């Protein structure tokens, strides 16, 4: 008798995904999925991505979390040229979990967005869908996940003129969103504004400083922390070009000098 026929890759992936939902087989299934992701040939990448992108309302937390983690593993394990064409599909797969309330799933989504930003052939390929989610999601969990994911993608993207050109018209829309009441996950949005402002020119970044300064003076501890980090990032990236804003920012920092932030 000859050797047993090799199990088709998609069938093997689906079997492992199913086993993620069982505590007794979760670790073994996760390790096998990681090994599959790392050992794929270039022509198998789309099939694997499709298999791990399926979502069902009955999916348990380990499956939801690890299916997102596999997106990051896929990007890390293969050449950028092989992964770059798949970035839009990868981001779409991640955003299917954007309303998930579980913090571990959210963290895996953010990691997947970071990986997509690093592998993206152009700024819109990764950031376009993420920015749309930030601008249009009404659910607070979705707003939080989308803003954190978009910030991670911006930070991971190569600092090119293409990135700056994409962010320049987006930044005013983010600032308008921050000033409004519809977006509830303000600290995450502030982090995104900080990342986007740092990746643009000093003139655009200067438009963000008043909003960040106001957030620093506000009552929300998490928003104050995010604003302080964003202002520090702008000072690092743009330095003397934002010198005109230095006195007003220092005054707010002085007023908050006993703040635990």
Automatic annotation (TrEMBL):
**Single Gene Ontology MF annotation:** microtubule binding
| Matching SUPFAM superfamilies | ARM repeat
Using the record's annotation, list all stretches that form the TORTIFOLIA1/SINE1-2 N-terminal domain. 9-261
Q: Which Pfam families match?
A: TOR1L1_N
Q: Which Gene Ontology cellular-component terms appear in the entry?
A: microtubule
> What is this protein called in UniProt?
TORTIFOLIA1/SINE1-2 N-terminal domain-containing protein
The species this protein was found in? Lolium multiflorum (Italian ryegrass)
The taxonomic lineage of its organism, from the top, reads: Eukaryota, Viridiplantae, Streptophyta, Embryophyta, Tracheophyta
């Amino acid at each position: 008798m000859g050797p047993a026929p090799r199990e088709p890759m998609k069938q093997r992936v689906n079997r492992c995904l199913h086993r993620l939902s069982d505590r007794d087989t979760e670790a073994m299934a996760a390790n096998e999925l990681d090994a599959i992701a790392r050992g794929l040939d270039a022509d198998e990448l789309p099939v694997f991505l499709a298999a791990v992108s399926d979502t069902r309302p009955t999916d348990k937390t380990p499956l939801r979390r690890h299916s997102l983690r596999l997106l990051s593993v896929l990007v890390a394990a293969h050449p950028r040229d092989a992964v770059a064409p798949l970035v839009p599909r990868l981001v779409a797969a991640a955003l299917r979990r954007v309303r998930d309330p579980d913090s571990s799933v959210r963290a895996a989504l953010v990691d997947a967005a970071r990986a997509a930003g690093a592998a993206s052939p152009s700024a819109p390929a990764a950031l376009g869908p993420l920015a749309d989610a930030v601008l249009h999601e009404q659910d607070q969990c979705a707003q939080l996940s989308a803003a954190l994911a978009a910030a991670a993608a911006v930070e991971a993207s190569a600092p090119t003129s293409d990135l700056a050109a994409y962010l320049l018209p987006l930044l005013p829309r983010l600032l308008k969103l921050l000033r409004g009441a519809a977006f509830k996950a303000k600290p995450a949005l502030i982090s995104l504004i900080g990342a986007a402002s740092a990746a643009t020119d000093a003139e655009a970044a200067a438009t963000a400083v008043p909003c960040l300064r106001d957030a620093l003076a506000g009552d929300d501890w998490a928003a104050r922390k995010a604003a302080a980090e964003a202002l520090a990032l702008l000072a690092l990236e743009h330095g003397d070009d934002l010198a005109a804003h230095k006195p007003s920012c220092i005054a707010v920092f002085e007023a908050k000098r006993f703040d635990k932030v």
